[in-house]
Every structure is written in C-alpha cells, then in structure tokens.
Write a structure and sequence with these properties.
Helix content: 10-25%
Order of helices and strands: HEHEEEEEEEEHHHHHEE
Mean pLDDT: 95
Low-confidence stretches: none
Number of helices: 7
Largest sheet: 5 strands, antiparallel
Radius of gyration: 20 Å
Shape: globular
DNA sequence: CCGACAACCTGTGAGC
DNA sequence: TGCTCACAGGTTGTCG
C-alpha cells in the first residue's frame, strides 16, 4: 500500500490524536513482523509521552520522551496501516499492535502481510543504517532533474526502477513512478543513462506534482489502505496508468501496455511515452 | 559498483 | 462452488 503520500496522510491523520499523549498500555498481539517487535518495547513506552510525529521517506518517526528518550521507527510495508481506534473497539484480524493513550484513543497497527515493522531507535535517528543511505525527499529542493541526470550517467538500468531507488530519491514506489513517467512522457523501459537532462527535468517536476496531488487527495487506496482517521484515499480515481493495462490511455486513447521492470508490473502508453 | 533475483507473508481475483 | 496459481503498495540480502 503505502508510498510516501500514504505515509504522509497517515502521519497527518494520527498526529493530532497522538502528539503530547501519554502511553498507558501497549498490547502486542503479533510480535513477528518484518523486524520482530522489540522485547522491551512495552516497558519503554508505558508511562512515556509521545512527541511531534515526523516522516523520513516511507518511515514514520514517533519521538518517545521521558527518562530514556528514543524514537519509534515505523514502516508500513506493503499492507500496513495505522489508525486511531476508540477504547473498547475490538481488534480485527491482523491488528497486531495497540498503543493505548491517556485520552482513551488507541493507535492501532493493522498489517495483513506483516512486511511492516516497528523498531526502537535509542540514538540519533539519522545514524540508523536504514535511514543513513537514503536520498533526498522528493518534495524538497535538494531533489531535482539535475540530480537524476547526474546519478544516471552510465546506468543501464531502466529508468523506472532507477527512479524507485531510494538512494536516488525516496518515497517513489510502483504507483507514483508509473504515474510520473506518464506525466513526463518517458518510456519506463528506457535505460536511465540514455535519458536526457531535459527529460529528467520534466520527470523530477512530474514526481513532485504527482506526490503533492496524491497527498492532497489523502493517498491512493487500492484495497484497504486507510489514513489515520480511518478514511480511504481518493487518488485512485486520478491514476492515469497504474493498474490500467488493457484500458485506454486518457490522453491519446491508445491501449495501455503492461511490462515487467525490476520485478514490478509497469504500465505505460506506447504512444505518449517515448 | 552494478543489476538480477529470491525472500519475507497473507489475501484476493482470475481461470479452470 | 471450489481449487490452484499468479500477483499485490516495499525493502534487504545474496550472487554473479
């Protein structure tokens, strides 16, 4: 599910219910996530207060204040979601973790495929090896077409997996990579090293445009994604290519084609994307 | 260094 | 209706 817009939607949705609250109870129903839930997580959280929520790439950052401060590094994987439940609301299947808060709200983690995880960071967040190698945020000024051009020289990799590489730019997953390439008019199969600077300038602008628009729409709900307040995202209606193979291109009417690039399904228009 | 690929896990939808 | 198979929003590790 979650690419950057979905994680950001989640952050914004749960923040008002979480920030400044004290954790009064932690319920771990399934500790076996992608990374096992830390054995001491319950002890660390109960009685602690939560700080202002952050996000880096597709990671949600939850500061934990108190005697031994730290940060929860939370990743939603492919199928994870976080929402605010009310006290007494029964957990459903795959509701793996609850943080019960002092106002009766529950931060509840749901993740059928269990590709997501929660980990405890004691020291500086940026020192974590998972975050240390990440490229710039796509909506920041340090991400632009010139960076894409510079990093792509000599790369034979297809441009779509190239732009999905988190060392190049973070937060661009399979949906938004496909959408940005469509907006930029670039064939996703083209070698990254053979895309011109002019095209990369268009691609960077398209990445920023599509991510910003998706955040405005509350993300993309394909199956069961919900933001922090339990509502789905509405960007699916705006998708031009993702999941539409065999259907007509909204721009030229041609049939959208499906190929596999970097083990990921990739849909594009052979007429509009060259 | 680069790129291809498998692995992690469960649910769903297509096809038979 | 029921079975089997391929595939799904991400990331990491291994191998050549």
């Amino acid at each position: 599910m979650p690419e950057l817009p979905e994680v950001e939607t989640t952050r914004r949705g749960i923040a008002p219910h979480v920030e400044g609250r004290e954790v009064v109870e932690v319920v771990v129903r399934q500790p076996r996530l992608r990374v096992p839930v830390p054995a001491d997580l319950v002890d660390r959280l109960v009685g602690a207060r939560l700080g202002p929520l952050g996000r880096r790439a597709k990671y949600l950052l939850v500061p934990v204040e108190g005697d031994e401060p730290g940060t929860l590094l939370w990743h939603l994987g492919m199928s994870g979601s976080l929402r605010i439940a009310r006290l007494g609301e029964l957990p459903r299947k795959h509701d793996h973790l609850d943080l019960v808060l002092d106002d009766g709200g529950i931060l509840r983690y749901h993740d059928p495929r269990r590709f997501g995880f929660v980990d405890w960071l004691a020291g500086s967040v940026e020192a974590d090896r998972r975050l240390a190698r990440l490229g710039p945020e796509p909506l920041s000024e340090s991400f632009d077409g010139e960076r894409l051009y510079r990093l792509s020289r000599g790369r034979r990799l297809a441009v779509k997996p190239f732009v999905m590489d988190s060392a190049v730019v973070v937060g661009v997953g399979n949906i938004y990579a496909a959408e940005a390439l469509f907006l930029a008019g670039i064939d996703p199969r083209r070698s990254a090293g053979r895309v011109s600077l002019a095209r990369y300038l268009r691609l960077a602008a398209a990445v920023k445009e599509v991510l910003a628009a998706a955040i405005t729409q509350g993300g993309t709900t394909l199956r069961d994604f919900v933001g922090g307040t339990g509502e789905p995202g509405y960007f699916k209606q705006r998708l031009n290519v993702y999941g539409r193979h065999g259907e007509a291109c909204r721009r030229c009417g041609g049939e959208l084609r499906l190929v596999t690039l970097g083990q990921r399904a990739s849909v594009f228009c052979t007429r509009c994307q060259t």
